[in-house]
Amino acid sequence: MNHHHEVVVIGAGISGIAAAIKLREAGVADVVILEKAETYGGTWRANTYPGCACDVPSNLYSYSFAPNSDWSRVYGTQPEILAYVDRVARDHGLEEVTRFGVEVTGARWDEAAGQWRVETTTGEIAARFVVAAAGPWNEPKIPDLPGLADFPGEVWHSARWNHDYDLTGKRVAVIGTGASAVQFVPEIQKQVADLRLFQRTAHWVLPKVDHPVPNAEKWVKRNVPLFERALGAVEYAAMEGVGTAFHHPKPLMHALQKVGQAYLRAAVRDKELRAKLTPQYLLGCKRILFSNNYLQSLTQPNVEVHATGVDRVEGSTVVGSDGTTAEVDAIILGTGFHILDMPVADLVRGADGRTLAEHWAGSPEAYLGTVVAGFPNAFVVLGPSLGTGHSSAFAIAEAQVALIVDAVTTARREGWAALAVRPETQAAYVDDVQAALAGTAYNAASCHSYYIDANGRNSFSWPWSTGELVRRVSRFDPADYEITVPAHAEPVEAKTQEVTA
Fold it and tell me: SUPFAM superfamilies annotated for this entry (predicted)?
């Protein structure tokens, strides 16, 4: 491994792949991707649980520069999304610049040298620019439950699925009822003898307009480009309609909530069970879940819903906060991820020697979700305040990558040693975002979601449309940054090489 690179990209998921491809296409030849796993895919590599699929239509959940006409369903499944992402990376020659099995253990800005010192499991690397693309759905959140470590059976998180354990005929407890559980619970319900679902909070579930894509439609997509574009426009408009409801909960989100209420009544006829599954918060306050079989699976005779959190584990018994118990052979954790307390924040130290986590002090913030004051020549993809609840992560990542590519190529062209967003620019932006979030469904007082950080502030959500996100986030304006120019420096043409896809 070389010990100096112009750009180090941390993570080989969808955002890291996009960053590397677009930087190389822009002539930035010396790019390396560091990936702790052994293949591409990020969260789609890690999450292999039964039923894993996307909640954004496949036509939108893909790179704009690499459209795919062969999705098998309206909403792509994990295996084909992973295959697609892997194929795009390899088709664009990223194998030659990706170092698999290399984990970043730290990074610090060396002011004197004007570069980053990136510590890895295989040694230190110096880099002029760092792109943190590990993403917020990277590190599973494991609950600190008394007795869990001493449970005699099998325990695993949904993002680390144990495919070697046969669930057939087993007694299983599922802790957590978020987006992952909604997908895997209907699958394992068919196998297990007894399923106990511990639900701390009921979630709104809407029907998923999903079906296999006919071969005739695939043929038209491949041979009539305008058709695929038109279909994507229709799906985009539909998703933006949901986005409008987030921003104007009265009356739009309240109307959509009635759809959820009607769906729950139709799927669950038992009044007692339906009462357990009825949320007590405004739709959109938490992530909206989509499924055609989750609610139905909970009505089956081998399923019992415990409408409570978990207090502890005693031997083979899971004890709910309400005192109810379940003796089980296995525990599956559907407890989410470290999203606003992402582990990479503890590893990266800025110009003052403090970590990103120390700067944030529980409330992550970044200008345009991409650059942080005090961290020169560093970028984060899928950062704070960019979550929408309805947009494609590909669209968000590509907008950020456009900004990153513009910033890096401008710095190279002008001979800048470093660029760092102005603190006052970042502060004004954060204030703007927080003011716009007031009154949205994201900030409804009726629930506490992972959108809300340790200090009670929404550091996750984007308060405007996807179109506004792309317009604002993709724009690099040098006036927003403090520029460092070496005393002897003159603008130079940086080394480039032609990169072909």
Answer: FAD/NAD(P)-binding domain
pLDDT of residue 496: 35
The stretch 452-460 carries a mean pLDDT of 95
Structure token digits, residue 405:
């590519």
What mean pLDDT do residues 353-365 have? 97
Place of tokens 């610049």: 97
Instruction: List phi, psi (to 5°) of 433.
Output: -65, -45
Residue 309 to residues 145, 204, 304, 312, 466, Cα–Cα distance (Å): 11, 18, 14, 10, 35
Is the pLDDT assigned to residue 388 strictly greater than 70? yes
pLDDT of residue 491: 43
pLDDT of residue 227: 83
Are 280 and 446 within 8 A, CB to CB? yes
pLDDT in tens, 110-123: 999 999 999 999 99
The continuous run of DSSP H or E covering 402 comes out as helix 393-414
- What is the number of alpha carbons within 13 Å of residue 160 lying toward its C-beta? 15
Taking the C-alpha atoms of residue 68 and residue 71, their distance in angstroms, rounded to an integer, is 7
DSSP codes of every residue in 421-474: E-HHHHHHHHHHHHHHHTTSGGG-TT---TTB-TTS-B-SB--S-HHHHHHHHT
What pLDDT score does 135 carry? 86
- CATH code of the domain in which 371 resides: 3.50.50.60
Domain that holds residue 186: 140-203+287-336
Contact between 148 and 427 (Cβ < 8 Å): no
Number of domains in the chain: 2
Could you tell me which residues come within 8 angstroms of residue 96 by beta carbon, excluding any fewer than 6 positions away? none
pTM, whole model, 2 decimals?
0.93
The most confident of the ranges 131-145, 219-233, 370-384 is 370-384
Give SS3 for 230.
helix
Phi and psi angles of residue 329, each rounded to the nearest 5 degrees, phi first: -95, -25
State both tokens at 402: 């456009």
Pairing mode of beta strands 31-35, 330-333: unpaired
Rounded CA-CA distance 77/49 in Å is: 11
Cβ atoms within 10 A of the Cβ of 77, count?
18
Residue 313 and residue 375 in one domain: no
In the chain, count H helices and then E strands. 13, 20
Q: How far apart are CA 238 and CA 231, in angstroms?
A: 11
Residue 109's contacts (CB-CB under 8 Å, 6 or more residues apart) are 115, 116, 117, 349, 350, 351, 375, 376, 377, 378
- CA within 13 Å, CB half, 153: 21
In 10 A of CB 446, how many CB atoms? 11
Question: Average model confidence (pLDDT) for the chain?
Answer: 93
Give the DSSP letter of residue 315.
Answer: T
173/303 same-domain check:
yes
